[in-house]
Amino acid sequence: MMKAVKLGIIGLGAEGGMYAGFLAEGKVNNMVIGAICDIDPAKKAAAAEKYPNVPFYDNYLDMLESGKVDAIVTCVPHYLHPEMGIAALERNIHALVEKPAGVYTKQVQQLNDYAASKPELTFAIFFNQRTNPLYQKLKELIDNGEIGEIRRTNWMITTWWRPQGYYDQSAWRATWGGEGGGVLVNQAPHQLDLLQWICGMPSKVYSNVKYGYQRNIAVEDEVSAVFDYENGATGVFITCTHDVLGTDRFEILGEKGKIVVDDSKKITIKRLVKPESEMNATMSMNDVMKIFMGQSDSNIYSEEVLEFENVWGAQHMTVLENFAANIVDGTPLIAPGSDGIHGVRLANAIHLSSFLGKKVEIPFDEELYLVELNKKIKEENKYPTRS
């Protein structure tokens, strides 16, 4: 049995640096730093100072072929995740890809298909919010039917305020060719994953997306999307990067009650004493007026409030530890790599609806999405188109 997984960290930026720190401090069971890779000479100097005994590479293929790593994590721009994941798996190296799994579903599907041909290897995605006890509890409540069949979802997540200086710090950031989009591919992928993980994938999307609305960028900084679900439920998803006061509120309405999540810290569960459909069928207007006027003797719902603390770094360490445990002893993955395509598909559908100015069904034509994305890349005239 492998004693400790030697992880190769590709990209020593904010995320890669954080993971290196956790591993160097021994905070992740069954995992150590095997090697570090970055194309920036300044990162090489920084790594030599902080991790003098760790091999450093400026080409990730050299690292993959060095024999120094058992697994990799891809802390690089989004377009690179699929090709790096495939390159690792080709060399029988386990792959943990950062979110989002890619920019467009066609490239992510290629990664998933290749990973499926190597079932003996561990393939995972860094959806650390799936380890958040709050969202694990929320999924449990929905899966157990606590509020019955879902009728509506509403998530306003505008806590992503980013000033112009944020976008100006890197030439590839907030570009179609370099990053592949704005808030949908950079800040909100966790919420898109959680939304479909907990409530299911919408069947249709209609969006109103603003590009460079309040920032001097080519990509989206304001998104409002309306969803249809197979069971007739509806949904709304709102996000942006120009709200300095920010709101994070997720509401799920069901036939038997409502769940509200505030600031990703508190869950309020309101359970109806009788399902709404039964109330609708049996209550007279006189009974309803008594409730509205506070004259009813019976409460129509009960309320439960659950509060959660979020320890910085704990979620990321849990993903790394779970990834290592799957490699070492087969512990089930919290977020299998194949799940990464769902959030990308939802982001693509929101973009495509905006590009075409009409409602888009899921699944959509992946080639059509790529054609429209390449139009944006050509207009930008900074990067080559994609295939």
Automatic annotation (TrEMBL):
GO terms for molecular function: nucleotide binding. Residues 6-120 form the Gfo/Idh/MocA-like oxidoreductase N-terminal domain. It holds the Pfam family GFO_IDH_MocA. Residues 135-259 form the GFO/IDH/MocA-like oxidoreductase domain. InterPro entries: Gfo/Idh/MocA-like_OxRdtase_N, Gfo/Idh/MocA_Oxidoreductase, GFO_IDH_MocA-like_dom, NAD(P)-bd_dom_sf. SUPFAM superfamilies: Glyceraldehyde-3-phosphate dehydrogenase-like, C-terminal domain, NAD(P)-binding Rossmann-fold domains. This is Gfo/Idh/MocA family oxidoreductase.
